Amino acid sequence: MDLLDQALFAQIVEIRRELHRHPELSWKETRTASRICEFLDDLGIAHRKDVAGTGVLAEIPAANEGPAIALRADIDALPIHEETGLPFASQVDGVMHACGHDGHASMLLGAAALLAREPQLPAPVRLIFQPAEEVGRGAPAMIEAGGLDGVGMIFGGHLDRHFPTGTVIVTDGPVNAASDQFSIEIRGSGGHAARPHETIDAVVVGSLLVMAIQTIVSREVNPAHPSVISVGRFDAGTAGNVIAGHARLQGTIRTQDPEVREHLHRSLRRIVESVGQLHGAEVTIDLVEGVPVLVNSGEMATLARQVAAQIVGENNVRMLDTANMGGEDFSWYLEQVPGCYVRFGARGDQMEGYPSHSSRFDFDEAALAVGASYYCAIAKEAGRVVAAKAD
Ligand code: NI
Question: Which residue, among 56, 71, 66, has the nearest Cα to 124 in the 3D structure?
Fold first, then answer.
């Protein structure tokens, strides 16, 4: 596949590897942002640093001043100790680009280089280099900082090891789940393990809660609507012969339908209150809403599919065949402006099967050329659509 000229491909591979060597956690992407700005400077693209903390906004002008097409890359890494053994492995202890956001930044810079070569764009292009996707807060912060001002449509994507390199996955409807978190405090009263009648055992109350919570999805939700509640953490107790007076549960809720989301929140509160009453314990819940469900509209998915077909051929444009319950904060942008979020196949022929967020995760760098070409093409095609509408 010769989507990019060799010089540009080599350049974006180089910057990908450099970002990979120096990963930075959410809200700490200062070195990453500086490197992105240097690259943009070399291209002569105007940009603004320190947006929403560590974000970068760049603008490639067009002849008209109409609505812009935004392209977004997330740039943060994860608190994982890298074990790939790659020559460009992380040099930062305990921090790793294990989700491919180094690749996202690099492919968007590749697109910037291609767009900067265009004599005339149908609409201005806004490049959003967004911090803190992994904590689900970067997108709303960039919106708050004006990232979407004057934007008519927005496009983004994720590298995906589930699909071979050279494919683009474009799905209508929900493509990422809403993701909420909860923390439950159980206050009973502790005492001697041999005299339970003198106590209210927080471990027993917590255990009952964990099991009761499992019935919400299995017994209350239409099985046709995917949803998950997982308790990932259960803290309690200090010794085997001491009944714990206090326990804490922490968990996550994933849904793809706003009504199901509401329902799960209500049921969780109801069960928490009831189980507390059942055992005379004081049980409280703190529920924090995270990213909303990410939904591609049919119209925008059709546009993205047409453009992707120009790049990789119709046979290599695919759909997700099962629901993805992962969260993605691009959903905040799509609540404001139309757009589409795709996935770029990134599994090379010889690659072993380490998924994203694994300490051995890597992706096929040939996918960077697909992403860069797609972003350039969608900016032009969508630009023609918004320019025609604005006329
Ligand atoms: Ni990611």
Answer: 66
